[in-house]
Amino acid sequence: MGKRILIVDDEPAIIKGLSFSLKQDGYEIDSAADGEEAVEKFNSNPYDLIILDVMLPRLNGLEVLEKIREQSRVPVIMLTAKGEDMDKILGLDYGADDYITKPFNILELKARIKAVFRRLNGANNEQVIRFKDMTINLSSRSVTIGDKDVNLTAKEFDLLQLFASHPGKVYSRESLLEIVWKYDYLGDLRTVDVHIRRLREKIEKNPSQPDFIFTKWGVGYYFADK
């Protein structure tokens, strides 16, 4: 059985075109034309990936994403109108795994989908990273501290995985944008600071005196090496 994808968009032509093209690659396709229908279908069916437009009637894409993230880490690729930089930032901050701007090339979207599935398949040989009382499971993209699950957004997890995989290595904000956000992301450097602050709030007992992620003033951030 092929992987099942839910396409959420209020433009019938986009749903029709994507459905036809993705079915050619062996995916099973379901669709929804507004935010409420998307949530209903998500609650009633299992999906391996969701393609979610930001601009939707009834519930917008970010509201849908928020509801999905309350109960699932299913991969989500956001569709945004050209120039909606804040929507891109918010979409990733809410826990999207990637985004692509309209109009888009179907081949590029297919490449993004394959990249998401490759990440989930756990190409990394080291599937678990442990440090102090933190356990990072790379294949399930989950984090526990002690016996408590920590709910991270996609980008928060990507940052933590990068840091923990290279303890002691200092990353500048520019390099973090390039490595974690990819695709020539042109966002404000403060985006990195905001994500680091929120990540610390979730994993540190005292964010102002961190145990895991440290700041090297004037240079960048790094993960504890001992």
Key attributes of the depicted protein:
Arc Repressor Mutant, subunit A, alpha/beta, 8 helices, 226 residues, four-stranded antiparallel β-sheet, 40% helix, elongated, five-stranded parallel β-sheet, Rossmann fold
Provide an overview of this structure.
It contains 8 helices and 11 strands. With 226 residues, it is an alpha/beta fold. It has 2 domains: 4-120, Rossmann fold (3-Layer(aba) Sandwich); 128-223, Winged helix-like DNA-binding domain superfamily/Winged helix DNA-binding domain (Arc Repressor Mutant, subunit A, Orthogonal Bundle). Helix 2 runs parallel beside helix 3 (61-69) and helix 6 (154-165) packs across helix 8 (190-203). The radius of gyration is 18 Å and the shape is elongated. The protein starts with a strand and ends with a strand.
Order of adjacent strands in the largest pleated sheet: 2-1-3-4-5
- How many independent structural domains? 2
The biggest sheet amounts to: 5 strands, parallel
Low-confidence stretches are none
Query: Which fold name corresponds to the CATH topology of the largest domain?
Result: Rossmann fold
CATH top level of the largest domain is: Alpha Beta
Order of helices and strands: EHEHEHEHEHEEEEHHHEE
